[in-house]
C-alpha cells in the first residue's frame, strides 16, 4: 500500500493536527483509565457502589487513580510502529503492517520481561519506558497472537474465531494518518487487526473505527465520517454485523435521552462490533467529552474498552484543549503519551527534515531505529 504524497503543511494546519493527535491519544487513555476500575462491575453494582449516576470520576485500579490498561499500552506501541514505518521507508523498506507487528512484539516483551533489555538494538525510546513493564489485563487472545514472530495476514489470520474488541482498542492511531486516503487507512487497520483477531467482525470493526477517527482528525464531521466507514466496510465480505451495529448506533440517537439501558441495547459489548457501536453512540450524543466518557463507562460491558474508543473519537473531534484538566492531571503516563503524540505529529508533518535524502537527525534515528 502506498499513501498519498506528503502534503505541504502550513503552521496553522500543523497546530490543528497536533491538537487532534494529542486529543485522540490522551482522550483514549483517559477513557481507558476511567473505565479501568469498574470494568468488572455490572451497572447495578456501579450504582450500589458510586450512587445513582454511576462512576463520575477515576476510581482506583492497579493501586492508583488514573491507571491505564493494556489497551493504552498497545495503542502507544501502534504509534511507535507507524513512526518506524515512515523512517524505514527512506531505507527502501515499506510495509507498515510488518513495522506495527514488530512494535506490538516489543510491547509483548514488556509483558514478560522485568524491564528494558539493553541488548536489543531495536528498542527505541518507548520500549525503554520502565513504567510500561507491567501487566494491565491483556487478553489471552492478544498475548497468543503476539506470542511469536509469525505475523497474521488477512489470508491467514491469527485467532480466526476471535471477535472481541482487543484489536479495535489499539486501532485509533491508524486514523491519524491524515495524509492517507480513507480506503488505505481501513486496509491497514484490518491488516494489523488480524495479527491477533481473525474474525471478520473484529478486523472490519477496526477498519471502520480507524476510518471514523481519520475523518475527525481531518476536521470533518462525525456523521460524514460514519457514513464513509459504512461505505468502505460495507463493500467487504462478512460486513453485516458491523454495518448493522453502526446503523443501530446512529438510529438510537433519535430514540430518546441516553442512559445505560439504551446502551445495553447494543449488546453485551463483548464483541468488537458492539463495543464500536457503543463508542459511536456515546460520541454522537455527548454534550462534551466528560459527558460522553461517563456514558461510555457506565454500563454492564467492558468499560475500559468503550471508554478508550469513545475518548479517541471525542479527542480527535475536539482536540486536546477540550479534555478535562482534572482527569489529565492524574492520568498515568501522561508525559509519555504527550511525547509520543508530538513525535507522531512531527514525523507526519516534517518527516523529510528528520530523515530525508537531504537531512538526517541522529537523535531521531536513535529514538526510532531503522533496524
Please give a structural write-up.
With 371 residues, this protein is mainly alpha-helical. It has a single domain (11-367), classed as ADP-ribosylglycohydrolase fold, CATH 1.10.4080.10. It has helices at 11-36, 43-50, 70-89, 96-110, 140-145, 172-175, 182-193, 200-217, 222-234, 240-252, 260-264, 272-285, 289-297, 303-318, 325-330, 334-355, 362-367. It starts with 10 loop residues before the first helix and ends with a helix.
Per-chain topology:
Elements: H1 11-36, H2 43-50, H3 70-89, H4 96-110, H5 140-145, H6 172-175, H7 182-193, H8 200-217, H9 222-234, H10 240-252, H11 260-264, H12 272-285, H13 289-297, H14 303-318, H15 325-330, H16 334-355, H17 362-367
The CATH architecture can be named as Orthogonal Bundle
What is the domain tally?
1
The CATH top-level class label: Mainly Alpha
Helix content: 55-70%
Shape: globular
CATH superfamily annotation = ADP-ribosylation/Crystallin J1
Q: Which oligomerization state do the chains in this entry correspond to? A: single chain
Poorly predicted segments: none
| Helix-strand topology string | HHHHHHHHHHHHHHHHH
Instruction: Report how far the terminal alpha carbons are from each other.
Output: 21 Å
On the 0 to 100 scale, the average pLDDT is 94
The number of helical segments is: 17
Global Rg: 19 Å
> What kind of sheet is the major sheet?
none
Proportion in β-strands: under 5%
Q: Please tally the β strands and state the result.
A: 0
Q: What structural class do you assign from the helix and strand content?
A: mainly alpha
CATH topology annotation: ADP-ribosylglycohydrolase fold
